[in-house]
Amino acid sequence: MRAVIFANGKMDEPDKARAQVNPGDLLIAADGGALHCLGLGLTPDLVIGDFDSLQQEDLEVLKSRGAELIRYPARKDYTDLELALQHAVQRGAEDILIIAALGERWDQTLANLLLPAAAALQETCITLIDGLQEIRLLRGPERLELLGQPGETVSLVPIGGPSVNITTQGLEYPLNGETLEFGSTRGISNVMLAEEASIDLQQGLLLCITIHGEEDKLAENY
């Protein structure tokens, strides 16, 4: 089963986000993410959080449309998004797509990017999308097949330590059984050569960020 979680961050390219939701998906809103859902004409199956980003009238609309509301106290140990992930796994989701998890607050953005590394989620395939950007975490040993277009940007960022024995295919700057050290920028701004590419990681944790769209200014070098 696949779950789609709308977080309460910035949502670029709303039409693209809407197109990611398929019939049969378990649709979860992390607190204010419910407003993204309503704005796209979607009703979440679950709304989870302390509801500090929702007005009472929002909650009434959601409840009247059949959404299940799960309220937590404001003083809690987990963010609304982590609670949403926990509930998705408890309900059997093995594949989770997270939308609108990034934004202006760097503390929450960084925490959200690292959430897929949690031990409790190691059996779950988690993808984050933010506009034209798609983010996946690899846990070695793991192979990731990428789909895109020639010229699109692919960046590899090791987290939590070195990412060991990486082999890539279909990228302009290949890695052949090499290690990316934690804190290194060597894996930034690689380029897809065709519509398919692959990344093999033997050990460690590796974030793979794909920037789709040839005209995307985000692909410019820093």
What is the strand and helix layout of this fold?
Layout: E1 2-6, H1 14-19, E2 26-30, H2 33-39, E3 46-49, H3 56-64, E4 68-71, H4 80-90, E5 95-99, H5 106-114, E6 125-130, E7 133-139, E8 142-147, E9 153-169, E10 176-180, E11 190-191, E12 196-211
Parallel strand pairs: 1-2, 1-5, 2-3, 3-4, 5-6
Antiparallel strand pairs: 6-7, 7-12, 8-12, 9-10, 9-11, 9-12
Summed up:
The protein has 222 residues and is an alpha/beta fold. Helices cover 19% and strands 37% of the residues.
For CATH, the homologous superfamily of the largest domain is named as: Thiamin pyrophosphokinase, catalytic domain
Q: Report the order of strands and helices.
A: EHEHEHEHEHEEEEEEE
- Second rung of CATH, namely the architecture of the largest domain: 3-Layer(aba) Sandwich
Distance between the termini: 39 Å
Largest sheet: 12 strands, mixed
Tally the structural domains: 2
* Strand content range: 35-45%
Rg from alpha-carbon coordinates: 18 Å
Structural class: alpha/beta
Average pLDDT figure: 94
**Care to count the β-strands?**
12
- The tally of helices reads 5
- The proportion of residues forming helix, as a percent range, comes to 10-25%
CATH topology call of the largest domain: Rossmann fold
| CATH hierarchy, class of the largest domain | Alpha Beta
Coarse morphology: elongated
| Low-pLDDT runs | none
